[in-house]
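B., you asked whether I could sanity-check this one before it goes into the benchmark set. Here's the sequence:
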Amino acid sequence: MDKHDIGTPALVLDLDLMEKNIAKMAEYFRGRKANVRPHIKTHKTPIIAHKQIEAGAEGITCAKLGEAEVMAAAGIKDILIANEVVGKKKIERLANLSKHCDVMVATDEPRNVEELAEAAQVNRAEINVLVDVNLSQNGKLYGILDRCGSLPGKPALQLARKVSESKGLNFKGLMGYEGGMGRFIEFEKRKEVCVEALKPLIGTKNMIEEAGMEVEVVSSGGTNTYSITGDYPGITEVQAGAYVFMDTHYKVMEGIDFDYALTLLTTVISRPYPEKAILDVGLKSITD
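And here's what the prediction gave me:
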């Protein structure tokens, strides 16, 4: 098919470039202690998730329970929900999902742990749990998003202990997202801030292990830090997602070498004067 035969506006996926991106990320982690657990927020497509796993990925990362359910229905068996799941009905769905695949979920406060444990027992399920650790240092670390997560250190240790002592729950480890570093174009500056953010996460891991609990998983990172987080001692998996298609922001960052696999095909519908072109695409069809 010629591109002129495609109705516009249209998203056009170059499968060769996408598979090249998938292979490049998988190759980076081959032989390393950490692995990639791709975040599917970029594509939300089971076929692509299967390709990432076939290339060597640990499993996948989802933002929402509903996404995890779709992926599980498509045969994906190793899933991290990198967010807290709250509310009785959603937690019940999570418990049922955990009976059919290996799913992990984040938690950051005691009440949620109690709700997860209750649902697991009522539904005769076991739920795998990661304690979510806030890496922003109370919002003081410039460049790191201040979002969900227990405080590192003792608060996270206490939460991990509560999870491990709760019937129906399996404490699997920690996660912490050093997000927001897209503002650091220079690799060395990005590395400096990233390492500073990861220190309390690994410090918390060490504290929990010293208390006698196993920390099997330490999940973190993204496309813009994959080569930093992926090499940091103690990290076991990296939640990179954007690399599969790539985008204009990451492409200009030092140390991020993936190809544009997804492009937008449009048609010029008017040329009022030589310096101006009107396209058949608007803000509802495209984001930067």
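One thing to flag: The CA atoms of residues 71 and 106 lie 18 Å apart. Otherwise nothing jumped out at me.
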